[in-house]
Predict the 3D structure of the following.
Amino acid sequence: MRSLRPLTSLLIATALLLAGHGLHLTLLPLRADQIGFSDTLIGLTASAYYLGFVTGCFFIPNIIAQVGHIRIFGALLAGFLSALLALDLSNHLAVWLILRFTIGAMMCGAYTVIESWLTDQTPSDARGKVLAIYTFLTLAAITLGQFLVNLTPADSSKPFILAGILIALAVVPVSLTKSLAPAPVPSTKLSFTLLYKRSHTAFAGGLLSGIVMGSFWSLAAVFSLRAAGTTDFVPLFISSTVVGGALAQYPIGLISDRIDRRYVLAGLAIATAGSSLLMTLSTNTSWLLCAGFLFGAAANAIYAVSLAKAADNSKPDEFVTIASSVLLLNSLAAATAPLAIGQMMSLFGSSFLFFGIAGFSVIAALYIMLQPLGKTAVSVEDQSPFVAAGLDTAPASFDNDPRSPEASEADLQPLPERPSYSEFEAEFDYDEVFTEEEE
């Protein structure tokens, strides 16, 4: 595919990085459990990661503008690698919180570099195709990372070294690339108030997605370890949810293009609650894998459908702001939920992870279903097309989304420095647009 040729080195680097990232996501909860952290503290360390991710969204673009994509990518992965290896050297909670915060910020920066590079080097007529390939590559690499967990004992330094090798190798293709250097990244702009005005449903969906997936990625490894009694089962369980989400996202997206997305989101929330309860009742590992597949199919799609719902009621020049608001709302919820659910797991047992997720999902489903249709509601015929989206992403990815305004499209040519997004928005008054409340 001709449109992918300038992106070959970047996609290779992405696959290596996310394989190491997928390994580290499962490894750290297991290691934290082995060194004696309670479920509450494991959730707290996960919250530090997501808080670091949110923080990175605001300061990384400015650094990229000063030093460029290639140099900052190497620096970010060096920071990630150093923090990851340092985790293997310490059992102190304070050190873990600082290092996991650092890893979150570094990963946000890496995603920002990757996704803004995709934006800059992708012609407008290939946006959807490249985004689909990138999403598939992300899921495949993270799944591969799960199966690397069992190659070495989780209580040794070897899995940290293996993850470190993959992360270090990710620097090589980008450092040697002959592709054109991308333009600076626009600054992140968000407005939760604007998002809520445009769509209560999308707001609730973004919040639920953060609670569900943040809790899952933070504590599911601990749950599956205790349910099966062996670390060998953990990567299989995590992979079943990732594969379920990968296979179901496009069918669910097609359905959401033909049905009011309010009903699709409510249905996904109910399905997430049902599959969560099924996991708490499973009596063997085969049932857990089946329930995990169903959970992944429903829960992983909530974010993408929420993003599409938000796009339905946003003007073209609002899309990046509203989409960034959905993403950061999702990340803030992911930073908060593991701490609360981890505390409940410490008090009532590991099954409360999915009891808690089921409870939040039911509440969200009821809230969405009870929303009245507002004057700005969008008919099914006028809904924007569904676009696959991953949870671990950065605001820069929305410039590459086919729903983005034409002004953000880039050619395969060196670009002059662009002004920040906030400068484009200086004269835009959100209060004058869509003053009515909508669903």
